[in-house]
Design a protein that fits this description.
Elements (H helix, E strand, L loop, with lengths): L4 H17 L4 H11 L8 H15 L5 E2 H12 L3 H7 L2 H18 L4 E2 L8 H17 L4 H11 L1 H6 L1 H17 L5 H13 L11 H17 L4
Parallel strand pairs: 1-2
Helix pairs in contact: 1-2, 1-3, 3-4, 3-6, 7-10, 10-11, 10-12
Length: 229
């Protein structure tokens, strides 16, 4: 009996978007999704192909890919037993899987590599998330204290997860409070203290060299504007 590979693709993507809807970063949501399918790739070549392709296609939507994940996907797709796969699915489905496989193998080569094993929001992504959430709260005309408290509550998990996320959240929040002339002196003092004590070397490989440079410039600008507090 030929197995329905589309159902497995659909279930994998559905799980990924569920975890995303829970506020997880793309890499974290993908890691949780892959965890749910541990061992399934051993059931047959169809399962191995579908899970590797689905994971790879999601990686193509991210700004980076962990170096080991990239190699694992490439190895899995290049090691498929095509004779076994042909016997497990219908001829049209077989051709479709080969096309999807080739698309992933072609696209994955151009994704920048991430050398940190920490699943997290990447630099520009966490900045974007903070700005988007700030915009929602600002449009709801929240007062300064409430606005800051809700942002810190929303990104509490990310701030506990990695130092890079924490510092980008703090820096972006300070920039937004300054830009929109929001009176949050107490929060400014907390952020100023954290940024003054922050050592860029502590983030290790969580940020690329270009990201570290960009963040350093942003932190200096924020501290300059907060120097009179």
């Amino acid at each position: 009996m030929k197995r329905n590979y589309e159902a497995l693709f659909g279930a994998f993507y559905e799980n990924y978007f569920y975890f995303k809807s829970e506020g997880m970063s793309g890499p974290e949501a993908l890691a949780c999704t892959c965890e749910a399918y541990i061992g399934m790739d051993k059931r047959g070549e169809m399962e191995k192909a579908v899970l590797s392709i689905a994971e790879g296609r999601i990686h193509l939507t991210h700004s980076k890919i962990f170096v080991k994940s990239k190699q694992q996907i490439i190895d899995a797709l290049n090691s498929l037993d095509l004779n076994k796969l042909q016997h497990e699915i219908a001829p049209d489905d077989y051709q479709d899987i080969l096309e999807r496989r080739d698309m992933v193998l072609d696209g994955i080569e151009s994704i920048p590599v991430d050398y940190s094993p920490n699943t997290r929001y990447y630099y520009f992504e966490i900045e974007k998330e903070v700005k988007n959430y700030f915009g929602i709260l600002f449009n709801e005309k929240k007062d300064a204290i409430e606005l800051v408290e809700e942002i810190m509550e929303r990104f509490e998990r990310e701030c506990r997860s990695t130092l890079s996320e924490k510092i980008v959240v703090r820096t972006t929040l300070a920039e937004l409070l300054i830009r929109y002339r929001i009176n949050a002196r107490g929060e400014f003092l907390k952020i100023k203290n954290e940024l003054e004590q922050f050592d860029m070397n502590d983030v290790g490989e969580q940020l690329s060299e270009n990201e570290k440079l960009d963040l350093s410039i942003r932190i200096k600008e924020v501290l300059t504007k907060l120097q009179n507090l």
